[in-house]
Amino acid sequence: MIRIFKYFLFAFLFLNLYSEVQSKPVPPGSGEGDVPANILFLIDSSASMSRRISNRDAVFGMTNAIYDSNGDILGGQIRNLAVVKFDADGTRNREFGNAARWTGARTDVCEAGHSSGTGYSSTTRDTRTKSSAKLRLVENMSTNDGTITNEDIVFFTSTARPMRGDIIGMSEDGTDCRFYLNPSNMKVQAMDVATIGGEVYLFAVGRWGRNSAFVSYNLTRGERSSIYNLGRGGNSSSAKYNLRYVWRIAVNSDASIMYAARNHLFGFALQKVGNVYELTGGGNALCVRCYTANSGGDLDTELTTVNSVDVSPDDDNTVYVTSSGRHAVQKLSLDGTMRGYTIVARAGTGIRELAMNTEDEGELAANKVRFNTPVGIHVTSDRILVASRAGTVDVFNENLFTAADKDTAWLQQMGGGAVTRWNGVKQAMSAIVSDTTLTSGANFGYGHWNAGETGGHKKRGRGGRFCHFNNGCKYYNGWTGTHPDGHSTLCNRDSCLNVGISAEGHTRILDHLLPQRLAWGTDANAYSQMALDYFKNDFDAYDPTSDCQINYVIVIGDGMMTNNVPAAARIAELRDMPNSVRTLFVAYGGGINPVGMTRFNQMSVAGSCPGGDADHDDCEPTIVANTPADLKTQLTSKIRQILAEKLSFTAPSITATVQEGGSLYQAQFAYEQFGEWKGTILRKTLNPDGTVDHDPDAAGNWDAAEEIKKQASAAGAADSRNIWTAMPDAPYFGNWDNFNTNNTDTIERLFGILGYNIQDYHHVGSDCDVRGTDGIVTGISDDLTGLINFTNGTDYFDYDGDCNITESRKHVLGDIYHSQLVEIGPPDASIDFRSANEEAYFRATNNYQNFMHKHKNRRKVIYAGSNAGMLHAINAADGSEEWAFVPPFIAGIMPSIINPELDGEVKVGTEADGTNLMGGGTNAIFGVDGSPVVHDVYIKGFDRDGNVEVSKNWHTILFIPYGRGGAGFSVLDVTHPIIEGGQGPIHMFSIFNDAINNKVLIADHEGEITEHTYSSGSANISDSLEGKQADSNLNDAKELDGDDCDETDPSTCTNQDNIAVCQTDADVTGGKFHLTGTASCYTGKTFTFEGLLPAAGADGVTVPKSSLIITERIEGTLQSIDFVSAKYVNSQLVVTFDTDKVYNPGGSELEESVTNGFNVATSCTSSSGIDAMYDYSQLGETWSAPRIFRIPDPAQRGNGNEDSYVAVMGAGMGNTNLCAGSAVFIVNLDDNEENPGSIEQTLRHKTHLGHNLLFTVQTTHPSHQTSKPDLLKQKSGSLITFACRTAIGPRNRGKDHRIDHARITQNLGTNVRLSTHHGTHQCPSQVGLHKKYPGCHGEKAHRALARCRAIHRPGQNQLLEYPRIAFQGCKENIFLTAEAFVDRTKGNARFRSNISQSNSLVPAIFSKFHRRIYNSACSIFHHTSQKTFLAEPIIGSQGLRNSGPLQIRIERVPYLYSLMTGGATVTTL
Questions:
Q1: 185-189, 350-354, 1256-1260, 1331-1335: which has the highest mean pLDDT?
Q2: d(CA 420, CA 1459)
Q3: Shortest CA distance to 1262 belongs to which of 1167, 1165, 1172?
Q4: What is the C-alpha to C-alpha distance for residues 763 and 1106, in angstroms, rounded to an integer?
Q5: Beta carbons of 202 and 191 less than 8 angstroms apart
Q6: Do residues 1461 and 464 make contact, with C-beta atoms less than 8 angstroms apart?
Q7: Distance (Å, rounded) from C-alpha 756 to C-alpha 895?
Q8: Strand order across the 723-724 sheet
Q9: Within its chain, how far is the Cα of 748 from the centroid?
């Protein structure tokens, strides 16, 4: 276990002009103290990581789905779950069966057993099965012999041992075996059930040895037909041949035709003989209706390759089919002839879709439905169910599935298949390295490992098989390159330390992890040698004498590691180094057997327990993460704990100050090492003489933290706080207090929306359970309500150590760190105007005066965001909380505060006997960390009932960026800030860019969330359709091989061996491997990508080579590679190379070809595949403070009264994604009914591998677009200047800095002027400008430089010299901003030259005196008198590596948006 002690280190900071200083305390969770933590990830890249993951919220691939008698849905599963149940609303029913699924039993008594002959007899069978195929329900069934009487029976075929090929009839509730049909020598693969003439018949096809077979049953009478051995039937287009491979059949209403689906659609004639049915012609059964498929045909007119079929219960000539190759559903009308049909309707895009269908009922067009390998279909009189291998079931309205109405037929999607372990670890790591709350406090490195020295085939020399089973293989072999650049000398697909630990390491990890290939074996020597040799010999930042530096290795694996004894010795040596390097182990992916877990636990002791003592307090247990969500949650929690361990600095700290009238408001926080930081807002009186009355007891002074503490209460008791969010199932209208345990189910969905899991903090055996606290249970039900109560102010995590987890906490208000304070009172915007273009004129002519009068007595409220995850509305008069708003997407971050390892492990005091009083703790996170912005706007808002107004009215809105809380923002209407008379604040909309899962989330005013998925802009070979087809084939084979096939005995992997040999396009039916390939390996020159859109273009259009960057890792080095061409075919990108490339994810000995791990990337301005109206795909952490103003409405040209209000905001902080943050959004605030949160315009910033900048504009209307920069195109217009300031610092520092207020000077005219700004707001007492200004009087320094420029008019060389004074004096705490204003006279060549010179100035300054340049997002200043908007950046060590001012002109006439870069020069890093 772990013992953690709270402590505070109070230090006095003395100014040293020539030393680096920490100008602010580090933010919560960032962990940036004296020295960043060093963390090396070593990830298992063995072939077993390709296995799919099982978890509670997902199901495996679905084979079929049917309705039961209650209208709920039963689904067949490919593996492990057999049969599961969903309620009609799509929720997994966990009361079904004996374990939320059909389990069967080793000795199960089935009442109606039948093998041969007539009649039934009870039989005892092993009915355990992992997989099932087609399901069919028979209601009110009875057998003539009385064995079954009026029961609802569900029949299904088993596709796994021990009962593979047999048929079970289970009770509808999934608990009992009622029928067991075992047709002798035949193994059933497909079956159907029909009631004809009051009797129930079952039809089945399958295999008799290697031949096709058919059988039928009369279930009512207990009779069976002869089993027809149909032979092999000739070639692959033969009907009889295909029957032995068929997995889906369907009979029509009178059982005259049996349809079978396998690529083509075959119809066999049936005839009744006695009481059973036979195939007409017996052993010579022929296809009487043969519908030939065209795999590449038009889905709307031609039958595509099919794999499942069902017949309409209302029309024998209406047949439905699915295509797993084309990912579509087709409805056929048969004309009664052998081959005639018409396609009535189809659904599906025609390509494999990884995204889920999340649209509202009836809102998803048929050709937009996203299928991922549909394999089962069931049709009733009014519904269609489509099951897919992705684990989903889509529901359609059968009555609307017509040519005219098909676009409204889709109703819902349920389920969701489990991803592979490897894809899951990539998702989790993407989240980790994209989280600046983690990366700003730690330096990361990365390597992968499996087994083998050669990087080639596992059986060659000292390859994977040799090294897995034998000790002695050598890995790492030193470092190649100048650290942290370069990689380990031994670097291949078997092992490589790809990324050295550094401040920029997190930005490089995904470049190596995402395209990484898997290989066979798990040799523990690999990771242990890499870790030990690296820290001992090549990681020069390792400090063996440091008391502050923390070093960790995190090993992530999924199973049976070998050679553990020598590996344990190495990591023990790491552990015992002078400055201990601790190794943590993560058992990932679920299903790890007991032997494997034992090995993990042994290695955890060796890696973390001092002296190898397993009982030592400092031991780190094995981290168990069964799912990607668990992995993300556990790693985030652990890293935050690591960072918190090394923090120690003074508190409290003042983070925000605002002066209003006679009041001074200050936000402060106090640091807590293992808990939520303590925040407050203080109100102090400003005396007439300018002095401040600091006495907390003085009249009018208050402490918001104390006032809110009075409002909070114990769990379950009434309090006076109003905490609310926007949730459709728990409306906030009318009470504004819905974030409580009355709405647990709805809040739980918000908690899970970003993929964080609630962890089991209090459970049986936990600290407070042992100490006798009531109400603790194992599982997360108590932790779910506990987290909600904690948000409301209770001490659920036992901060004080008394195990009273329902009492109110001693401090309730979370820290207010980056969020500035805003006071809003009565409306007071100016209505004095000098020009009709001014907003004051707009107000005056739209009755703003009446709005002012109506709200003249509006109570003053202070708004501030806290890292408790809320926006707080504080009464300015007394400091009480009027309400607190939890943005819906910030709720999704809240589960990450839970850290079970802190339960009972934090010292919180001392007992009377002198022993330590131990309590609990939580991780510190960022919540609402951005600064709210207020503006009065004239829009169609919402009335008190949440309805959109008929006409425009004035409203006071609050725009709330999340800052470090995430890539999103919320907009509130605070016209009525006080909850009274049925009125209060209104949530207009919230936006969040979930870049990890490539989707934009939008919550409307009621909290209804819609998802808009997009392409990430890059893909590797495994993302190609060819790669996905090979992966799908391989996983299917693995599922068929089951547990019989493992790493110790690959001879049992027969299904994998059968498909191991590579196929080319020429080898498969239709000539396209990605549609009909059957192998697990593809080789060819052509690769096809969906959703990768480098440029707009129609089918057949060639994509310019400059739009794509293709790289491949060759001998450990990432290299650019050439390609012949790229073009669009069927809306897919087809890339052709001049030589064959291989994708071989399998490990069979029968195929030795090695995968070419290439990656395809597009530019940042390429289409992301998302509706431009909601394309927030480049939204980063929203550090930017937006500016709100009007823009012209193109539909009302020349009518200023119809201008629209928008918010202009920089895209925020990018991190690991090159494109994130490289845009400016113009957000529409006046389309709240139809398109809440829609984008008016996106100004995108395109970079190309760090070279020169190019700016383009994308708008939502074609007439608004211009394709290239246009310098000084119009004489009239408004100028927006984005002067993106630069943070500087020496290599390997990676510090974050923030300047809260910019003071940018301007000088319009023909001269280009340089404007400088020094970091005065954050370091008034700590930083100086040379020796002349030892107190860092920034304004004096600013004026000094301004005078110098005005008097001497220096050239560029002089301008480079003067800022040098600032750099010498203030080091990293000085930031300069340059802006170039240009005369609106076009054609002035001299002037363009000046622009070029000034734009290169700032990069030149920084590159001359410092080794790193970082550019980040901009805030925007609005100067109404000149119609100029200036940009203030938020400084950071992440983001785009470029510099220089960006200038964007918004033209009123003719509403064209032109960008002016003036030939900006960028320093390439």
A1: 185-189
A2: 44
A3: 1172
A4: 57
A5: yes
A6: no
A7: 6
A8: 723-724, 881-885, 870-875, 861-866, 822-824
A9: 18
Average pLDDT, the chain: 76
How high is the pLDDT of residue 219? Answer: 95
| Local confidence band at 552 (pLDDT 50, 70, 90 cut-offs) | very high
**Looking at this protein, which amino acid is placed at residue 1407?**
S
HEC states along 403-432?
Answer: CCCHHHCEEEEEECECCEHHHHHHHHHHHH
Q: Are 54 and 36 in contact (CB under 8 A)?
A: no
Q: Which residue has the higher pLDDT, 731 or 1358?
A: 731
Higher pLDDT, 318 or 1467: 318
- Is omega for the bond preceding 162 within 30 degrees of 0, making it cis? yes
Report which residue type is found at 937: V
**Dihedral of CA 845/848/853/856: which sign?**
negative
Residue in the block written with tokens 């003074």: 650
State the amino acid at position 372 in one-letter form: N
- C-beta neighbour count of 1128 within 10 angstroms: 19
- What's the Cα-to-Cα distance from 33 to each of 27, 30, 843, rounded to whole Å? 10, 9, 49
Residue-wise pLDDT for 1405-1452, tens only, equals 333 332 222 222 222 222 222 222 222 222 222 222 233 333 332 222
Among the listed residues 1242, 1312, 1290, 1286, the one whose alpha carbon sits nearest the alpha carbon of residue 1466: 1286
Rounded to whole angstroms, what are the CA distances from 924 to 387, 478, 868, 898, 1215?
A: 42, 38, 9, 9, 21
d(CA 1223, CA 1439): 12
Q: What is the pLDDT of residue 368?
A: 92
Q: Could you give the C-alpha distances from 1007 to 733, 970, 1206, in angstroms and in order? A: 11, 11, 21
pLDDT at position 55 is 37
The pLDDT score that the predictor gives to residue 801 is 92
Residue type, 1147: G
Strand 62-67 with 151-158, pairing: unpaired
Full DSSP string of 122-155: EEEE----S-EEEEEEEEEE--TTSSS-SEEEEE
In 3D space, the residue among 798, 822, 806 whose CA is nearest the CA of residue 907 turns out to be 798
Write the DSSP string, 896-961: GG--GGGTT-EEEEE-TTSPEEEE--------S-SPPEEEEEEE--B-TTSPBPSS-EEEEEEEEE
Structure tokens at 125: 């069978």
Which residues make beta-bridge pairs with 667? Answer: 656, 681
Is the pLDDT assigned to residue 70 strictly greater than 50?
Answer: yes
CA distance between the termini of the chain: 45
Q: Which pLDDT tens digit goes with each residue over 615-664?
A: 888 899 999 888 777 888 889 888 888 887 765 444 455 666 677 777 88
Q: What is the pLDDT of residues 578-611, one digit of tens each?
A: 999 999 999 998 778 888 889 999 999 999 999 9
17: closest CA among 1146, 1387, 1366, 1393? Answer: 1366
DSSP per-residue letters across 538-574: I-TT--TT-SS--EEEEEEE-S--B-HHHHHHHHHHH
Position 1383 pLDDT exceeds 70: no
3-state helix, strand and coil shares in percent for the chain, rounded to the nearest 5? 20, 30, 50
CA distance 648 to 1111: 44
Say if residues 1455 and 1264 touch (Cβ distance below 8 Å): yes
Query: What are the beta bridge partners of residue 657?
Result: 666
Helices (H), 966-1084: 1025-1041, 1054-1058, 1073-1076
Claim: this prediction has a pTM higher than 0.70 = no
Tens digits of per-residue pLDDT, 1010-1065?
Answer: 877 776 667 788 888 898 888 878 877 876 776 556 555 556 788 888 999 999 99
The number of beta carbons lying within 10 Å of the beta carbon of residue 146 is 8
